[in-house]
Amino acid sequence: MKYIVEITDQIQNFNEYITVTKKNGELIDGTYKMTLQEFLNSLNEAIDLGDEMLETPILPNNCIKFVWKNINLNVAEVYIVVPKMRRDITFYQNPMKQVGFPKMIFKYTIENQKVSLSTIVALRNDGPIHLDTPLYHFPFSHVSSEGDVCMGGNTFPNIQRIQQIESFHNLFLSSPFSSDYGAKTTTGKTINQLFDELANQDLDDDLLLPITKMVAEPETKSLIKKQTTLGEYFKFETI
Known about the structure:
Layout: E1 2-6, E2 17-24, E3 27-35, H1 36-46, E4 63-70, E5 75-82, E6 85-91, E7 94-101, E8 103-111, E9 114-123, E10 136-137, H2 168-174, H3 191-198, E11 212-216, E12 223-227, H4 230-234
Antiparallel strand pairs: 1-2, 2-3, 4-5, 5-8, 6-7, 8-9, 9-10, 11-12
């Protein structure tokens, strides 16, 4: 039994029809018409991995998402939640004690043994994380308003296991801060003012500046500012 699929080179979209012929030896058992989309859906439904499984590695603590970007090249993205807490930091050459930091998500890209930190965003410390969790800017320097991370000349060590990155946020946060990209809070204060204010203090989540985007209002079509959610920002479908 075999199936012969005929697709014209003039096809314009997935809703156009193709021809599928069912043959048993030299005998034709039937000829069918279906859209290209229906044919592709049938192929997807027919895929069976049998006893094979596509597994993730053992993941780090506080990992909320692991995504294979290219399993053949061993490239993956890992999303780690960093708890809200106070941290000892260095601002230029000045040590600062117990500065309040928000709850954060660090997005790492892993390629074989190499690790890079691409994005940091903040969130309120008010419960479980969902697709519709609102996101906020990282309030301090070294992260742009788009969430891109400036590592300077610093790099992470190579890893043998993905679990090792669960503490890599400490390497980033313990490296000296400068004024690059500045502070991003609702107060408008400079980065040095913000660090001075938060020494030996918890960060008030009301200081966090929402990440927003312009969207069309459904009825009037006028543009309005809307806070971006976790699912929208990282293009997650599930979590």
